[in-house]
């Protein structure tokens, strides 16, 4: 009998059935992949598994006990959410052990020396480089990610660990650290549930899998019996060609004129960066997290200040440090942080898109709602944004649809340069392919496209040319087709090689 | 059916607060025979007019994610300045009032400029400037009211148009403009964008600081207008004008659907919130509740109104997911 047995579970919300008739078995000593597109019901299932929400029907048995009758059984299950969920102004040690009752420091006063000592044990075990006394806001993102997992494991009763996209903001080396931690738990007779949109990771770490689609279980079994394409087919319900590449077809005679030229640009966390962007190509930027790629682009866009260097667009000198000037003159930046830099959460989808086309919808009597609705509807159709109603608040749309809305909003202003910063983070495979297609189409239509990505596969698939950065400097400029992966990976780890294409 | 209607009401915040106002209004009318009398209605409308003007400004600041605690003393200071200019210097009342309005706009601008240029938190900054502005009022007046306000301007505070008190008419006109700005203009849309997500607004190319300073300035101007109208109504310029215009407008805005965290709500909703408070305060008086009890009763009702709002919002969120 499996350690966790979920039988015919369902959850209804008024008007929608989020989950129906789902079975799931979690075995100790196994890593279980939970796969599905955004909105397939994974989060709902996780909420039921952790006791955060109650099922409308069906049963959950944990360690042989019915969890509905023994809610303390949920203590055996720990959950690490995708979003960082730490106390930024408290120390690493405090973050590990709060609430103190759970971690065994439940005397009236807390023995801080003992807390720090035990914290160091955890940090060593998880290979976290931060010190117990560091404030969490000062440690690296990957350390924070690992700290979240370490915190879950301070629950001594934990037997099941659910990880929701633990690697989405990590580089390969850091992913390996997470995988080592997962393997240790697995070998220590724990059950792991691993949720990720990255197929290679699923196959690298997983034993069993369950695929959800539209709230139902559509496939389950051993990963050894399937392959990436099989899993994707189950998730999307249709055939998707993975090997396809999305590099723009260059016009005969190679790329066109230079759209943007960056010369000797320096700023926060980067120095002396030069590159040029030509019409018709997608220019990729590869590097580790913290290599300075986002900072360079945010500086070109005017969100951050430049300390030296110059930029010219279409041959004319470019004004730095003024985002309104950039937007008005057709250079747009789509941030990797959709939540913090992209959406206006409390406004409707219509208002979110409408804000960039006010020039077309304003009349003498103010914004024409009818005109705005029809223009926005065109964008919703063109970018295939799935929503029941354009008046829905954008925060209730799935991540992929938010991303498409932001791209549609940007494109409505007809920019000449569009900078995508990690456009597919946390987005399911099918929507990823749609975004790749949009980028390819835009490039072929003559928009200059810059793509920052931490996934080498994504860059190889989309970019015509790849610039590598390491620690705030450009380390290379490569033609994608003629460059090997080893060369690229070498360059993002600091090997200085100028294979100028 | 009822459930659906309730959901609809709860989803459309404006309709929700409007219905809440109608219910409270109807209950008040059925509880007291004097409530609907034209005299009493004009009392309610007049008191709503002054606090309403401040509420419009404060609600727009709250939508922006800001707050100005000096709006009350700006009203008082500008009323006093108008009085001093008219009485002590014999300046033409129209000119004096324009100068006082400009003063209000300037004081609001100073708040906005300090908040944006120094990156200060508006709550803390305006506690400070409220002290300064209020202090100037006391220095100018030594705490004594300025009397002998020219009779020719008193119609602004005391007159009526077709039986409707003039200050109320002015407030409704301002509200109409503010509503047009919020729903129909580029500036209004930018205001919501900044209140929703400042970084995203910047990424969209919006001149965030300009929007913020503009609304601080507008709020200062509206407070000055309220202060001047109050002087016209009283016939004296008292330094204490505006003392009660600080917290009630914030409560009114929240009852009317404006989030203190910004990004959502409308000035129109905030005025309905203010109307709810004004109605409740009026009915307490009509009931002859002892003045010692009035604060307790009206405070309790405000807490109930906000709790109801929060509970209904939780209900919608479940529906929406």
What is the averaged pLDDT score of chain A?
87
Number of DSSP E strands of chain B:
2
Structural class of chain B: mainly alpha
Helix content of chain A: 25-40%
Strand order of the largest sheet of chain A: 6-7-8-3-9-10
Low-confidence stretches of chain A: none
Biggest interface reads:
A-B, 33 and 27 residues
Strand content of chain A: 25-35%
SSE pattern of chain B: HHHHHHHEEHHHHHHH
CATH class of chain B: Mainly Alpha
And the CATH topology of chain B?
ABC transporter involved in vitamin B12 uptake, BtuC
CATH architecture of chain B: Orthogonal Bundle
Largest sheet, strands/sense/barrel of chain A: 6 strands, mixed
Q: Do you know the CATH architecture of the largest domain in chain A?
A: 3-Layer(aba) Sandwich
Q: Unreliable runs of chain B, pLDDT <50, ≥5 residues?
A: none
Instruction: Tell me the radius of gyration of chain B.
Output: 20 Å
Q: In total, how many beta strands of chain A?
A: 22
Structure write-up:
The complex is a heterodimer of chains A (501) and B (321). Chain A has 501 residues and is of the alpha/beta class. Chain A folds into three domains: 4-236, 3-Layer(aba) Sandwich (Rossmann fold), CATH 3.40.50; 243-330 and 415-501, 3-Layer(aba) Sandwich (Rossmann fold), CATH 3.40.50.300; 343-413, no CATH class. Chain A has helices spanning 42-49, 92-97, 100-103, 112-125, 141-153, 172-187, 199-205, 228-236, 293-301, 323-328, 338-342, 349-354, 358-361, 369-382, 399-411, 429-444, 456-462, 485-492, and strands at 4-13, 16-26, 31-35, 57-62, 65-66, 77-80, 160-164, 191-195, 208-213, 216-222, 258-267, 270-278, 282-286, 306-313, 316-317, 331-334, 362-363, 366-367, 417-421, 448-452, 465-470, 473-479. Chain A has a six-stranded mixed β-sheet, with helices on both faces. Chain A is globular. With 321 residues, chain B is an all-alpha fold. In chain B, 76% of the residues lie in helices and 1% in strands. Chain B is globular. The chains are: A alpha/beta (501), B mainly alpha (321). The A-B interface holds A 13-15, 301, 303, 323-328, 333, 335, 340-347, 351, 354-356, 358, 362, 365-367, 392-393, 396 and B 180, 183-186, 189-190, 192-193, 196-197, 199-207, 259, 263-264, 318-321.
């Amino acid at each position: 009998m499996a350690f966790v047995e979920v039988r015919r579970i369902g959850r209804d919300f008024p008007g929608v059935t989020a989950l129906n008739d789902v079975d799931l078995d979690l075995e100790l000593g196994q890593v279980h992949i939970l796969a599905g597109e955004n909105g397939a019901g994974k989060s709902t299932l996780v909420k039921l598994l952790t006791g955060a929400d109650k099922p409308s029907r069906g049963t959950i048995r944990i360690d042989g006990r019915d969890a509905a009758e023994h809610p303390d059984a949920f203590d055996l299950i720990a959950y690490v959410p995708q979003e960082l969920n730490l106390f930024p102004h408290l120390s690493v040690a405090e973050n590990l052990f709060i609430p103190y009752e759970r971690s065994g420091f439940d005397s009236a006063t807390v023995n801080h020396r003992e807390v720090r000592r035990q914290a160091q044990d955890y940090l060593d075990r998880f290979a976290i480089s931060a010190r117990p006394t560091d404030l969490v806001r000062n440690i690296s993102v990957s350390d924070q990610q690992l700290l979240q997992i370490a915190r879950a494991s301070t629950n001594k009763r934990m037997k099941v660990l659910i990880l929701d996209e633990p690697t989405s903001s990590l580089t390969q080396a850091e992913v390996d650290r997470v995988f080592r931690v997962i393997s240790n738990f697995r070998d220590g007779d724990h059950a792991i549930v691993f949720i990720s949109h990255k197929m290679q990771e699923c196959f690298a770490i997983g034993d069993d899998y369950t695929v959800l689609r539209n709230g139902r279980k559509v496939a389950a079994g051993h990963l050894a019996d399937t392959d990436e394409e099989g899993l994707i087919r189950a998730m999307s319900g249709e055939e998707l060609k993975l090997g396809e590449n999305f590099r723009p077809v260059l016009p005969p005679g190679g790329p066109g004129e230079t759209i943007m030229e960056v010369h000797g640009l320096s700023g926060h966390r980067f120095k002396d960066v030069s590159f040029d962007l030509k019409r018709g190509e997608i220019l990729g930027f590869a590097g580790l997290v913290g290599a300075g790629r986002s900072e360079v682009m945010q500086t070109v866009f005017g969100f951050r200040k430049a300390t030296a260097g110059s930029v010219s667009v279409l041959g004319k000198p470019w004004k730095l440090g003024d985002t309104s000037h950039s937007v008005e003159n057709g250079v747009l930046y789509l941030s990797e942080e959709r939540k913090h830099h992209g959406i206006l959460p409390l406004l409707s989808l219509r208002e979110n898109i409408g804000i960039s086309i006010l020039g077309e919808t304003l009349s003498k009597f103010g914004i024409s709602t009818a005109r705005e609705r029809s223009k926005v509807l065109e964008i919703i159709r063109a970018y295939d944004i799935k929503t029941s109603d354009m008046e829905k608040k954008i925060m209730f749309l799935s991540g992929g649809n938010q991303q498409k809305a932001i791209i549609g909003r940007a494109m409505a202003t007809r920019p000449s340069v569009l900078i995508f910063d990690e456009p597919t983070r946390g987005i399911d495979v099918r929507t990823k392919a749609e975004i790749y297609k949009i980028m390819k189409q835009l490039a072929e239509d003559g928009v200059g496209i810059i793509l920052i990505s931490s996934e080498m596969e994504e860059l190889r698939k989309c970019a015509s040319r790849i610039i590598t950065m390491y620690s705030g400097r450009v380390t290379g400029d490569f033609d994608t087709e003629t460059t090997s992966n080893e060369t690229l990976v070498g360059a993002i780890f600091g090997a200085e090689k100028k294979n100028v294409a | 059916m009822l459930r659906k209607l309730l959901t609809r009401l709860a989803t459309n915040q404006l309709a929700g607060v409007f219905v809440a106002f109608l219910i409270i209004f109807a209950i008040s009318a059925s509880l007291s025979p004097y409530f609907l009398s034209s005299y009493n209605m004009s009392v309610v409308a007049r008191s709503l007019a002054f606090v309403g003007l401040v509420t419009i400004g404060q609600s727009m600041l709250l939508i922006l994610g800001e707050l100005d605690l000096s709006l009350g003393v700006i009203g008082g200071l500008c009323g006093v300045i108008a009085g001093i200019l008219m009485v002590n210097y014999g300046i033409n009342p129209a000119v004096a009032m324009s100068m006082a309005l400009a003063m209000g706009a300037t004081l609001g601008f100073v708040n906005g400029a300090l908040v944006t240029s120094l990156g200060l938190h508006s709550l803390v900054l305006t506690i400070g400037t409220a002290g300064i502005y209020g202090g100037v009022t006391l220095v100018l007046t030594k705490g004594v009211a300025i009397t002998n306000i020219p009779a020719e301007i008193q119609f602004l505070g005391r007159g009526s148009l077709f039986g409707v008190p003039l200050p109320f008419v002015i407030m409704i006109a301002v509200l109409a403009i503010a509503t047009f700005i919020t729903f129909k203009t580029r500036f209004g849309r930018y205001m919501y964008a900044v209140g929703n997500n400042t970084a995203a607004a910047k990424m969209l190319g919006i001149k965030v600081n300009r929007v913020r300073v503009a609304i601080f300035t507008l709020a200062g101007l509206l407070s000055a207008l309220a202060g001047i109208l109050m002087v016209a109504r009283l016939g004296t310029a008292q330094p204490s004008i505006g003392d009660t215009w600080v917290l009630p407008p914030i409560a009114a805005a929240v009852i009317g659907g404006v989030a203190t965290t910004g990004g959502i709500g409308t000035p129109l909703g905030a005025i309905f919130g203010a109307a709810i408070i004004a109605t409740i305060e009026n009915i307490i008086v009509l009931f002859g509740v002892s003045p010692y009890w009035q604060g307790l009763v009206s405070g309790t009702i405000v807490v109930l109104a906000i709790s109801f709002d929060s509970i209904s919002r939780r209900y919608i969120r479940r529906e929406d997911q």
